[in-house]
User: Fold this.
Amino acid sequence: MDSQIKNKALEIIKITDGEICDNCLGRNFSKTLEGSDNKHRGLQIRNILAKEGYDNLISDSCYVCKNLIERIDKKFIDRIIEKIKSSGVEFSTFLVGTRVSKEIIEKEESMHKKLGLDVENIKKELNREIGKRISLEMQKEVEFNTPNIIILVDFLKNDIKIQINPLFIEGRYKKLVRGIPQTKWPCRKCRGKGCEYCNYTGKMYTESVEELIEPEALKISKGTSSKFHGAGREDIDVKMLGNGRPFVLEIKEPLIRNINLDDLKRRINKSAYGKVEVLDLKFVEKNRRSIIKTSSKDTYKVYLAKVVLDQAVELEDLEVLKSLKVIHQRTPIRVSHRRADKVRIRNIKHLEYKLITPQEIELIIECQGGLYIKELISGDENRTKPSISQLLEKNAKCKKLDVLEVNI
Assistant:
């Protein structure tokens, strides 16, 4: 045995008074001694030391783990597997997390510090060893980044819990009617508790895009709840048409993950017929949620706007609208109570116009996400510059607005 390894081993024996199990002994040499696992490394060290006269090193109690590792036997693994099966969860990947006493952690850290060792701690070994055995028994894969479930083993309470991680489904939705918000809108009076003002529903509106999509997804996945994440949002009185708006539906604690998305799409579109339609459903990872939510200002959107004027115009008067390129827009009055008061700069990529009547025009506007179209038309008391009203020198108001495209 290398003299440095031998000396370290003897120091450990001295610190622990020889009361150390093979796993806890071998773990200290995981980076310096070859072996199939820490138990095997510990046996190697113990056998070699015994041959050199240190033969009184076997103890019934481990100074470090208090024989915790010995508890991971077949009966213990079977108990975990039974817990998983009884939960009814469907999964293909998992991760193990453990909780041990503070005393064990502190003893091990103190010993590592005295010996100048930089090796894994006991929790990592426990997680790995439990994970290896469950993987072998259940034919499932350990996944460190995005596991379907996390098995939480609490050695202090002798308790096992199964944490079911969310399922993320991305798609696009069309909102075919006006008058419904994108997400649940709690009553402004009672804040969701239910009162006379909201007819004791707790909501300002009876339904939303979220609530029309959610029920079928929860039913088919057997999830407990969900959260809707949209790539921006349209106003309540605005339709979302064309190729739809991207969204991610986060389903909490789904028991079923192997979902037929074509079937889910069909069920949602049937139950929400005439109001909401979903398309292009696909499974995505967790990070897609934040990408979708923060994508609004990086997108380009196409709008169809019907505009009424307080005075008549002729077709040639509309030529000036082609000069709309860079817009400086202060936070609109209607959203100033919930948005920071600042000036945002947004670009218009393309604009087309059509004269319907002398006092009504139709606009197709392709612009950067985050541009408020209603205020681009009205000017919003001169908070948006330039605006349709300003350029035409007439009061303009958005009569009807549809979103035709959202490109991210």
